[in-house]
Amino acid sequence: MDATSRVGALLLCRAQPETVRTVAPLLRERMLLAPAGEGWSVLVPEGKPWQGGPAGQSPGGEAADPVDRVLGGWATALAVGSAWPVLALWWDGDRAGYTLAAGFRRPVGYVWLADGTPAGEDEAMRTFAERLGLDPVPDVQALEALTRPDPEADARARLRGLLAVLTRIGLQLPPGLDPGEPSRGLTAGAEMRPEAERIAGTGWRDAVKAELAAVESGSLGPWMRGPRARVLAGAQLAAGLPLALWGAGRRSGGWVFAGALLMVHGALGLAYDRIRDEGADG
After folding, report:
1. Which of 37, 40, 48, 38 is nearest to 12 (CA)?
2. Residue 172 and residue 32 in contact, taking contact as beta carbons nearer than 8 Å
3. Which of 73-87, 133-147, 207-221 has the highest mean pLDDT?
4. Which of 145, 79, 76 lies closest to 112, judged by CA?
5. Which of 166, 181, 199 is the last residue of a domain?
6. What is the pLDDT of residues 230-250, one digit of tens each?
7. Are 156 and 20 members of one domain?
8. The pLDDT value given to residue 109
9. Same-domain check for residues 70 and 133
């Protein structure tokens, strides 16, 4: 089995599928969406943009980003402006890990080598627990155990241990979506679920309109108009440009995408009333 065939990834969103459905098209990737427990959803990428070849190269012909960068950018893009966090799980032939994105806060992540050797910072687990509202004693202890050497636990077992802790806050992955499986197996597993649905990419304008409508009806609604909306939009613009430039310097398409999405959010936020009026006229 070659290295690329061992790559897999999942996006776990702490929101119901109907909420995730409105924002997932922003990623402009074909994905399968399914419920994943109480208050959770899972997105399974159908494509493999982290692989090389014609479908996995940038317009300039450079090799595709590794899976952790792609998933980190996707998680950040989904979490920006949302009231719910996004957890990206990823693995390849050499490593496995996660990235947790929540709003404008800096994403936090952890990595294990294929044999399960910890290769991250212990503080990341405590931040992870805090942002997801986990219990500061038993849950943090269980997470910190994943950062200690264990010759019996490989990278796949580490990810399963992480998910076991998250079951305490409602996460329950559907059968067939087992961490460590290659992308093809994950897609096949998701397709077998009768509740799964396909998400296709759409145009920026339509997708962002849909997201603005969803956010307006939720906890961020009061921030969508008036002075607070302009402050929020300005902050998005200010944060998006340096993030996109940083991603471009690292040739990381995922982070360029996240920065560009922030700028789009900010620009459309400043023109929100006009966009909503156009939507009403339509």
Report:
1. 40
2. no
3. 133-147
4. 145
5. 199
6. 666 666 666 676 766 666 666
7. yes
8. 97
9. yes
Last residue of a domain, one of 177, 199, 221: 199
Give the range of the structural domain holding residue 226, as residue numbers without chain letter: 204-281
- The count of domains in the chain is 2
Pick 198 or 256 by higher pLDDT: 198
Q: Which two tokens stand for residue 84?
A: 């719910």
Residue with tokens 């950040």: 76
CA dist list (Å): 65 to 21, 25, 71, 183, 187: 25, 20, 10, 16, 21
Domain check: are 98 and 128 in the same one?
yes
The strands making up 197-199's β-sheet, listed across from edge to edge, are 108-113, 95-101, 86-91, 8-13, 41-45, 31-35, 197-199
Query: Are the C-beta atoms of 28 and 202 separated by less than 8 Å?
Result: yes
Q: Are 90 and 97 in contact (CB under 8 A)?
A: yes
Instruction: Please name which of 188, 189, 190, 183 lies closest in space to residue 5, comparing C-alpha atoms.
Output: 183
pLDDT at 183 over 60: yes
